[in-house]
Design goal:
Serine Threonine Protein Phosphatase 5, Tetratricopeptide repeat, 0% strand, single chain, 575 residues, mainly alpha
């Protein structure tokens, strides 16, 4: 080798640069390839995460970390995966590593707070947001979260202090004042709780909802004079405020008689420009009280107010609905029906009013009206089980039992979460099935109804009668009939069923005794009881009296298909 080459500084420098340049280029190339590979793994991990393959994603994020131990993004994503998989400790460790390598990322630190919350470490979560609020005091969310976690950590006093600091920066706000109000209430500090509502009133004097909140709070804490003062202020600002007028009348009457109070509301109810909703809201508790107590004086005064409502607000369905409610609960069903019908004329979109009409129509046995409203209700409210229930009653009354069964079945499908309605439907289905001689289906329906209410006398009696009618399990029929009479004694229809079951068992002497009980319990007016007694008399060879009772049944309006045939084939000459 020519040694002079190395003695020449310029040549030596160029030579060394050539060697080192080549080495440097190779190093850069190697590093770039590794970074690219790491990035590919990271992208693949994200893809697996999006697809919901969380275990695969976690493995791949860990691979990224093996290649790049300071990759904070991979630590963060791994923490989120652990969180989804409910691996709380692993999630905490991973997010702490992410923050270690990038403590300026607010999302990492907020997620750390979430992980602490999930672990029940509320003090630590509060600390996270305390630090965040110091780093960026212009973000209100940090203060709210800080206070929230302090409350969770059972340190409401510190939480209030946080809200105080926030309030100094942003001024009085509804959200902060309401939160402080609730915290003070939780501490039993009603004075400071009131101060917070007063702060809102003072900050926003034209906002009536804040004044109402303060007045309501005074009422709840029995500071009635202060409540009255607030309602008076509201009326100073708005003399036509219905809610304040009613509330002021109410606060003036606390401890007074209900009738006197309702009388005091009369001038307010007579004003047509005052909101009807507040009038009804004030009246409803007294309607409920009438239902509970049957207080006629209170009922009459409340009725006077509902009549005023209907006159002053003639185009409001609500006024007639309230009127109808009160009339119904005072026993004036037909008058109530008229008001509910008027309410529907004004607004046919409220199903409970339709329901009231159908209930009353069924109670007064007006099946023509019930047919009309239940059919219309089905068209308007095809998902309401009660409409089909009442239409089923209509079809049963028409003795079109197949249609009745169809309506009841439709209602049954819609009433899975209403056990009481299901019970009534199954009971009625049982009766409809035995009218079509489908006894097995009848028994099944009755059994399902029994599972819901095993001691309902009407069900026991009807099931017993069905068993006896079909000559199936007369022992069971006797036991059920006995239980029905035990649960509800002196009921003619239950006594009749028992007599009928004993008749089918050929226990004629005991059967006659029960039929006589039924007849003495007003059964002389019931065609089916008269017919059954006639059957027993005929079976005991008292044919003349049998025909006499069968004829009585016809005279009372019996529609039994077999009665005329029984009389004709009895061999007894008509007298």
């Amino acid at each position: 080798m020519n040694c002079s080459f190395f003695r020449n500084p310029i040549l030596l420098f160029l030579f060394l640069m050539g060697i080192s340049g080549t080495s440097f280029a190779q190093e850069v190339k190697r590093t770039s390839e590794e970074e690219v590979t790491t990035q590919k793994v990271f992208i693949e991990a994200n893809r697996e995460k999006i697809l919901g393959n969380y275990e695969n994603a976690a493995y791949l994020y860990q691979e990224v970390i093996k290649r790049d131990g300071k990759n904070h993004a991979a630590f963060y994503e791994l923490a989120r995966i652990h969180d989804v998989l409910d691996k709380d400790s692993e999630a905490l460790s991973a997010i702490q590593q992410a923050i270690k390598y990038d403590d300026s990322n607010m999302w990492y630190r907020m997620f750390l707070g979430d992980v602490y919350e999930k672990k029940g470490s509320y003090k630590e979560a509060a600390k996270v947001y305390e630090e965040l609020s110091k780093d960026d005091p212009n973000l209100d969310i940090y203060f709210h979260k800080w206070a929230y976690y302090l409350v969770k950590a059972k340190d409401p006093s510190k939480a209030i202090k946080v809200y105080d600091d926030l309030e100094k920066r942003i001024g009085v706000s509804e959200e902060v004042s309401q939160k402080k109000h609730r915290l003070y209430l939780g501490q039993g500090n009603t004075k400071k709780a009131a101060v917070e509502l007063n702060n809102l009133v003072n900050a926003y004097p034209s906002q009536m909802n804040y004044r109402y909140a303060l007045a309501s709070f005074y009422e709840q804490t029995t500071q009635l004079d202060l409540a009255k003062k607030e309602y008076s202020k509201i009326l100073e600002l708005d003399p036509n405020d219905t809610r304040a007028k009613i509330a002021l009348a109410s606060s003036s009457n606390k401890g007074g008689k209900d009738v006197a109070y309702l009388q005091s509301l009369k001038p307010i109810f007579e004003k047509g420009d005052l909101d009807i909703d507040y009038k009804i809201k004030e009246l409803m508790p007294y309607i409920s009280k009438v239902v509970e107590t049957n207080d006629l004086d209170l009922a009459n005064k409340a009725l006077e107010l509902t009549e005023i409502l209907a006159n002053v607000h003639p185009n409001e369905a609500k006024s007639f609905s309230a009127y109808g409610d009160l009339l119904y609960h005072t026993g004036k069903k037909e008058e109530a029906l008229n008001k509910f019908q008027k309410a529907i004329e004004l607004d046919d979109s409220v199903f409970p009013i339709w329901e009231q009409v159908m209930y009353i129509a069924s109670e007064i046995d007006d099946y023509t009206l019930l047919d009309k409203y239940s059919a219309e209700a089905i068209d308007l409210f095809p998902n309401q089980a009660m409409a089909y229930y009442f239409q089923g009653m209509v079809q049963s009354n028409k003795k079109d039992y197949k249609k009745a069964i169809s309506e009841y079945q439709q209602a049954l499908m819609m009433s899975r979460k209403k056990p009481f309605l299901q019970f009534n439907l199954l009971h009625r289905l049982g009766k409809a099935y035995y009218q079509t001689q489908a006894f097995d289906k009848s028994f099944k329906s009755f059994e399902e109804a029994l599972n819901l209410n095993p001691k309902e006398p009407n069900l026991l009696s009807d099931y017993s009668f069905c068993l006896a009618l079909s000559d199936k399990d007369l022992d069971k029929a006797k036991d059920m009939a006995a239980l029905a009479n035990e649960l509800s004694p002196n009921q003619a229809n239950f006594q009749d069923t028992y007599g009928f079951v004993l008749y089918k068992r050929k226990e004629y002497s005991e059967s006659k005794a029960w039929f006589n009980k039924a007849l003495a319990s007003d059964g002389e007016k019931t065609p089916s009881i008269l017919e059954h007694y006639g059957d027993l008399l005929f079976a005991t060879n008292d044919k003349a009296n049998a025909v006499r009772y069968w004829q009585k049944a016809l005279d009372k309006g019996s529609n039994s298909k077999n009665l005329h045939k029984k009389i004709l084939e009895s061999g007894v000459e008509e007298q």
